[in-house]
Fold this protein.
Amino acid sequence: MWNYIEGILCLALISVISVLGLTVFTGFTGMFSMGHAAFIAIGAYTASILTSKAHANFYLALALGGLMSGFVSLIIGYPTLRAKLQNDYFAIATLGFGEAVRVILENLKITNGARGLVGIPARSTFLNILLITVLLTIITAHYVYSKYGRQSVAIREDHVAAEMMGINLFTVRLRALFFSAVMAGIGGGLYAHYVNFIQPSMFTSTQSTTLIAAVVAGGMGSITGPFVAMLIFSALPEILRVADMWRLVAYGLILVLIMVLRPQGIFGYKELNFKFVKRWIKKIRAKKPALPAEGGDA
Amino acid sequence: MLIQTVVTGIAIGGIYALMAVGYSLIFSILNFSNFAYGPIIMLCSFFGYFGLGILKLPFWLVLILSMLVGAFLCCLSEILAYRPLRKRKAKTLYFMISAMGISILLENMVYATVGAHFYNYPQILQGTVKLLAADIGVLDLFAIIFSCIAIGALHFFINHSKPGIAIRAVSYDTVVSQINGININAIVILVFCLAGMMAGIAGMFLGMKYMAYPTMGWITNKAYISAVIGGMGSLPGAVVGAIILGLVESLSSVYISSAIRDVFSFSFLIIMLFIKPSGLFGKTLEEKV
């Protein structure tokens, strides 16, 4: 039983890593990427080629996979963000980019075409996935609350005003895109070393859609919101095995309903944290003198 | 060979143009990309298969019914998913996410109910015509002619009728046209109806050319790309962009490689965006404060 739960948790945490990146880009910078599966694919392929063909160290391969994704994101980001593409234009460009990457992967020799790579060593364990997720969550939180993150939020809220305040739209957006691509690449590397087999058809627009759905449902402007949303999105299909075909229908419905009813997402701009525990403790402490009879054992 | 490729390119471009026009029309009024447009075209295509292949209705009747179905679905999506957002004056991003939601919903609904099969249309408009020493498919020829008629009629409607003038006024300035007594909701519904009719025609022709299947909505990505090349919100731009894209695709798939055809159309988009982000006929991209 634990093996089964562990498997679900591993895949869920791996998806969370990719979502964290997209949170920075879509949630905090307000840009809409519909081709994020491509970054996951690039990271997965780079890392697995490095470990299975060049016998590189696993963590080094993960990092290089992430960097490779980041590098490709600069190639796509430079022309599109330089041209100050807004919502729709950028979304279409990333949509095309996602498809193009998949087609290229299907036709390259080193990726073994549409048949995919087999025999990738199983290096991702529950422990290292968990540790990497925690580490990357902390890094994301620091990014968001740093100068870069605050500039991103300013751009999301009003890019004209942000530009007038002296924020360079191009560099801030490109930095956010690079960050999110690196995260997606690392997530991809972990995924490849967990399932031991990858092929281009695994990284379709469905995956990009799930990521976007998690960010939107969790709340644009929150880190823990998408985190929790992605955990739910990954675990739900396992629980509702019967409704597998209807899972994506439900995602679509969730997106529309959230936009119509609660556009700020489930968590809104709030974060899930443990301050409420502190508050409870304070309350209990404040109550204690009022209830001396109950606090007798303390 | 070259002539044949060019004609095929123009025929594909014609179908792209139908989609790009519908898409551009909605963009010019509401200023967002209606990603739900692709799945609606797919549903029209399935409806066409249902009418032609199973009910065995005559072609013209099915075409008109398919246009009605497209118009109905487009209006439904407007009323359910976009109108609440318009009332709240939401950001463009929210419209796009809502459209994405509709698109995912419809596409997977078809997956879950009909399944991932490919449905072949019955044999109509088959055969080839000899023209300038090249064999040209009747279907291609018919697609070109019909796209021309549909887009011409739309162009006439928008430029020379009273509702058309209202549409142009709204696309120019929503607030001022509202002050001048134009009912915005009615105009938006009208625009979605027109776009839906284009979707109906495009869906039928796409189905006849490539069969009907649940993920055929991705072909509309090409419509988005051609609309961007031509300049979003501009109807002549959408037509020109679509024909250029159709030519680029058919030429690159014949002379270079058909497997990486999509990479070419995408690189073309990127180059175009780099040189002229506002597209060939588009308004300037710089946003007003």
